[in-house]
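Supplementary Methods S3. Input chains for the assembly prediction are listed below.
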Amino acid sequence: MVSKIVEVKNEAGLHARPASVLVKAASRYKSDFTIKMYGYSVNGKSILGVMTLAAEYGAEMELIFDGDDEEEALKTVVELFENKFNNQQL
Amino acid sequence: MKELQPKVLSGRPAAQGIGIGKIWILADDNKPVHPEKIRNKEVRAHLEKYQNAKKIVTDEYEKIKQLPDDFDLGEIIEAQIQTLNDPEVEKLITKKIEKELSSVEYAIFSTYNDYIQLLEAADAKWANERTIDIVSVRDDLIQATKEKKRIFDVQAGEIVFANDISPTAMVKLSHINIGGIVMEKGGFTSHAVILSQSLGIPCVINAHWDRYNITRGNRAIIDGSTGQVILRPTRRQIDEYEKRREDEIGRFQKALEWSQKPDKTKCGSEFKLRANVEFLEELPKLGSHGATGIGLLRTETILFETDDFEVEDQIDFYNNVVESVNNDSVTIRLFDAGGDKLIEGSEGESNPFLGWRGIRMLLDKQNLLKRQLEAIYRVGGIHPGRIKILIPMISRIEEIRTVKKFCSEVQKSLELSGIAYDKNIPIGIMVEVPSIALMAAEAAKEADFFSLGTNDLTQYTLAVDRGNEKIAHLFDSFHPAVWKLIKMTKDAADDAGIPVAVCGEMAGMPEAAACLLGMGINDLSMNSSSIPRVKAVLCKNNLTDMRFLSEKILMAKELLEVHALLDEWRFY
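Predicted structure tokens for the full assembly:
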């Protein structure tokens, strides 16, 4: 299991479009993906789950991957947060 | 059997034109599904129905996603596909069927509803916009579990009656030549309304049609100019409206002939008619309507649609727009969120139109402002001399200076990074608050140009909320006070030697356009479908007559006088 705490850097928060990008990227990996935020925890491959977090700009969340490709998955998703879900083609 | 009587109901006019046709009802998205228990031996069949339905709807969405690129909705559809195949949703639905012996319909219905409630409780500004998307996924899925698939078999010419229309449904409809749209809900800034306007589909919103007993195949007439909807019209009513529709189409066709002629009055005085644009899909028609560039590019919708609007995305959007108008100019209005266009943090204001909107919001969200300015300056680097910046909701002179300070900062940092940008982008202001119209002489020293927003100028001058149905009759842009403020603004701009344009709805009314031209305002921007008729009137008349008209209007004391004067110019 690997995890990392990240911050939402896009101004408008983790809304529908970034949530969609996030779910799409995470779903490419086999590892289970859990997002923890303020005591809530949701399946990171569930777009509705991610949307219900309603994470605003500046919110901190813990990304947890568990599975064979966990390292790679974490790296990809952390990068998405870093570049504000910017360059991802849907 | 007794014939059912015709019924007339009134909604709010949202997109012009007359539609006559058979009624087609878009299945009500809010029909509740009731809890229903199944037997143990039915579990497997219901699980299968769910999986099959999921596949059918996914395929259908994938197909929509592949549709030609005239709608920028791919991202929304992608999110819909994910909503459909959400692993947590699948677990919950499966559990409900297996453990709680719930019917597949109710399992789907209740599971998605739980999420809708969670989202609504999260209270984010986008929650409401997404709710309709989730509802449409839910209902498409439920329909697909039934033997009979939800049929989207609307025929050309039929009038669509709906509660609300989701973006996906609107995309499907836009590929069929429908006769009109009647919606129970809908706002003036909704996708359905704006697309109707630019595609020329008559549309009426806030019409409570479902109180009446209508069925598919009944006839209806919709008048998108008055907001009237006639259910089960008589032969006589149909004839009457058919004639009116023909006249309207004939007038538009005739006007269209004018659209390719030079922008000159009969006596040879020049003017410019530009388009107000909000969506990329409006661009293809600008040329045939005779638009000279874009006098108002609204950017707030793009901000809402993409949730976060990064510099690169903005550059793409602006660049697409600029490239579509040959060598003409594009005036980009900075994000004008607020008022009836909500942004996060502005909910709950008791007077949103007098609240945190336009430049007031931007000066509090400086990152948003700086990123937009950066994108605009960089696109200016690609197309030097073709872009102008327009600041919305200016009510004090200081605000202009502050924005200009931000502009120089952005330019400086682009200079340091060695990125190409346009050094000479004119920075103008919307004149839509009476305080700035009254101070126009002073404002003209700070601004490079004025653009009169007559809708807001009217509501602020007359103290009439334009969204309030009870006082809708008091909202009238032809009020003599509004004309006076326009004249003051024009005079101040002339003294300072800066240009004035009008980009409000007034510019798109031929009679008002004639009066504006008479006042010397020869740069008018409007919804592109209004350009042909405005142009026809301006081309066919002499400037002296328009001057005479404007002089008389400026002397009028009452609305009735103004209307009487302008009525003579309404028809051509």
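The interface with chain B takes residues 10-13, 15-20, 23-24, 42-43, 45-49, 51-54, 84-87, 90 of chain A (CB under 8 Å). Chain A has one domain: 2-82.
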